[in-house]
Amino acid sequence: MKYATTWALATTVLAMSVFPAMAQKTASQGIDEYRAMLQDGNPSELFEAKGEDLWKQKRGPKNATLEKCDLGKGPGVFKGAFVELPRYFADTQRVQDLETRLITCMETLQGFNAAEIYKTPFGKGEQNNVTALATWIASESKGLRFNLSQAHPQEKTFYEVGKRLFFQRGGPHDFSCASCHGEEGKRIRLQDLPMLSKNPGDGVGFAAWPAYRVSNGQMWGMQLRLNDCYRQQRFPYPGFGSDATLALATYLGVNAKGAASVAPAIKR
Amino acid sequence: MADPMRIRAQASGDKATVRVLMSHEMESGQRKDAAGKLVPAWYIQEVTASLNGKQVLAAEWGPAVSKNPFMQFAIKGAKAGDKVAVTWKDNKGDTRTDEATVS
Fold first, then answer.
1. Is the interface score ipTM higher than 0.90?
2. CATH class as words, domain B6-101
3. To 10 degrees, what angle do helices A243-255 and A222-232 make?
4. B positions 27-86 inside 8 Å of A (CB)
5. A69 part of the active site
6. Within this chain, domains A44-139 and A153-267 share the same CATH topology
7. Do B3 and A50 touch (CB under 8 A)?
8. In whole angstroms, what separates CA A46 from the centre of its chain?
9. Distance from CA of A153 to the nearest CA of B (A)
10. Across the strands, what pairs with B85?
11. Do residue B23 and residue A43 have CB atoms under 8 angstroms apart?
12. Closest CA to A176 of A260, A107, A244, A81
């Protein structure tokens, strides 16, 4: 009982010391200032430089560059490719996002083993190179507006499946993506949570990844971001390039139609 | 060989503002890996900057500096066209120098 009283007292003192400070500046204003300061030295630039090098560098068993890679706008066209992905590719007969498409190119042009890269954990070996390449390709579409195709039946299927997954509740906490991202004005601690079942606006949600995470100093692509959403819902990773993450990416990408991309962004 | 730095130098008035982004792990030597073994310290110890070959800044860094560090400083009297070079040296003896032109 004595313990409880002391605790209550401590809470009161804490509350008194915290509130005057908050009256001057709201927490979200403070965080915005911090983010603005970070913008100036976004380390994702280092990954952009690395990605550009990797694109032009002769690598792999075939000792070839990626310069003929078709990201959906024709071989070698990388400007504006990011804001139209994921999309259906006739040669692989699959819906692919930027990262999985890059691996297709690494296999067909450079001779890498795609299955091997899929199995590589995030942040290890060739996965790091895929992230760097994706960061650079994304940076080449900065400021452009998302415009995903929904012309192919597969693209429509992936959108519909993504929508179902977004609202599907499950796991030990009975969570869905929509538990956090299905309402306006929600936040976790000091992070604003965008509502992703509609267009969240320029440079928010789908339009902000790949991004550099300051807190762990890692560059994250959309595949890792979506897998981590599942981890936070206490699910196992669906896996790199899984149908589930591609379907969700299609859903989020189509919803973001017209939103300007700021990727690569910087996050807490 | 370490990855290149990104250096931007912009003149305004009688000084130039230099922004440097370095690519480095900056391992503090306090962390343990998945097997419980200490990750050896690996961080930048010395940073120097020069303007047209003449040293204008020297700094001693330690393990408290973040991964992929960002450094900003101003050089008095630097004009557009001047060359700014930045060098770092880490505790493993690895070093990297990059140069940029003031714009």
1. no
2. mainly beta
3. 110
4. 66-68, 70, 72
5. no
6. yes
7. yes
8. 18
9. 44
10. B50, B99
11. yes
12. A244
Say if the Cβ atoms of B72 and A43 lie within 8 Å: no
User: What burial class does residue A247 get, using C-beta atoms within 10 Å of its C-beta: 0-12 exposed, 13-18 middle, 19+ buried?
Assistant: buried
Where do the domains of chain B lie? 6-101
CA B89 from centre of chain: 9
Query: Which tokens go with A236?
Result: 């196992």
Gap from B26 CA to chain A (nearest CA, Å):
10
Contact A40 B72 (CB under 8 A): yes
* Chain B environment of A49 (Cβ under 8 Å): 3-4, 6
Can you identify the CATH homologous superfamily of domain A44-139? Cytochrome c-like domain (1.10.760.10)
- Alpha helices by DSSP H, listed for chain A, are 2-24, 27-39, 44-56, 98-108, 114-119, 125-139, 153-167, 177-181, 222-232, 243-255
Q: B3 and A217: CB-CB below 8 Å?
A: no
Cα of B32 to nearest chain A Cα, Å: 15
Query: How many angstroms separate the first and last alpha carbons of chain B?
Result: 28
Could you say which of 1.10.760.10, 3.60.21.10, 2.40.160.20, 3.10.129.10 is the CATH number of the domain covering A153-267?
Answer: 1.10.760.10
Which chain A residue has the Cα nearest residue B19?
A: A41
A42 closest CA partner among A203, A204, A212:
A212
d(CA A7, CA B6): 50
CA atoms within 13 A on the CB side of B25: 14
**Which one of B1, B20, B21, B25 would you mutate to disrupt binding with A, by most A Cβ within 10 Å of its Cβ?**
B21
Q: What is the pTM of this model?
A: 0.81
Successive 10-residue mean pLDDT values, chain A, 268 residues = 46 44 65 76 87 91 91 90 93 93 93 92 90 94 92 94 94 91 84 87 88 89 93 91 94 93 87
